[in-house]
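User: Can you predict the 3D structure for this chain?
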Amino acid sequence: MLAREPQTGIYNQATTARDRGQAMARALLAILLMIISHTTPASHYDWHIDPAKPETGVLRLALETPLKDDTIFITRQTGPAAADIFPHCENLDEALQTSGQGWKVPAGCSAITWSVAFTTIESPTIDLAEQSNLHHPQGWWLLTEWGALLRPESQETYATVCARLEEASTCRPMPEPHQPPLFLLAGEPDLTRRFADISFRFFHAMLPADFDPTKLHDSLEHQLTYLTSLVPREKRAASIPAEIDVLILGIDQSLDRVGGAAGHTAYLVNVAVGDDGISSTELVRLLWITGHELFHLLGLDSAPLWTAESLAHYYGYKSMEASEKAQQLFDRMLEDLPEMGLLQAHRRVTRQGEGQYYGLFYTRGAAFWRALDEHLSESTGSEYNLDAFLPMLREHEFGPNGELPAVFIDTLSKHIEPSILNQLLDKYL
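Assistant: Here is the predicted structure, written as structure tokens:
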């Protein structure tokens, strides 16, 4: 309902019914124009790929209507600095000026262009956790959103991003800032498969010549079936993507760096490759990271950072078929952990920017959930496990410092002896 403003005369009793109707229409139109002027029009991103210039991609953002006012555009960043992409307003033939960590786009601009650099993969040294833009000589490209896609600083975007490669195109929705980033793979996938009503496009590189990635698919199908069962039925249509891109990239085992990352509709995962190929232990690690990233991608991680990452890592492990190799890998992960609780690590990472403690979310965090899961199963004669209580972590509010929801703790205390539960909380949190 509109607030009354006597000075406008809209509600003056002396006006006629027709005058009141016209005045109301004018007021509503003014409000509508005000809303429109503060909303970025629907837009579309085109990423043009020239195979003759594989290390450079040209991006173009076309707005449905020209901007009504000067507007600050930014890119999502993994660090504090704005990317060196040198955007240009196409229709005004004007280079954009930097403003803080973004660029000022002038009123009247309706199309912006800029270039993005791609690193060509020439050796097994790329850590996918770094989420950089990549090109592979086989003819595919990876565009990551970080520092590469302009978006309005304070408005929602409502956009699609399309990769144009010769006659082919691949399009994905532009995620909002609170969602996982865009990872867009362009080019012909090595393989496509369908699991649990999801179409997968697989891209592989830097793997041994005799390695058959399809041998992983039975495990992937098992993991996906289990993890999707954790998504509430009423939320599956919104949470589970119809299509997922997967990049599996070999990395030299001697580097001791194996990473992964989940995007809005894609995930990236390294597998360590040694002199003798890929060991059975590294295959287990690959499947573990795959389960971790799928947990994120399926929207099961709506919680504070420490909880989201630790649950993803534990459920990545739990999604695999139980094996001695997996248990050994888990136990080895817990060797020589720093004596720091998860809530303190959460504060140090999120408030003080001390990223060196981020790894505790994976290690101590996964150990916490495994211990809690085992105690739940033992205390209830296998009637309950942690799966049954995951909805509470998505639906209830955490404490200001990342503390677990009170209702979650209260419910657990009905199934686990309170003294044992308190010991677990004190040990890990």
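Confidence is low (pLDDT under 50) at residues 1-41. The chain has eleven helices and 20 strands.
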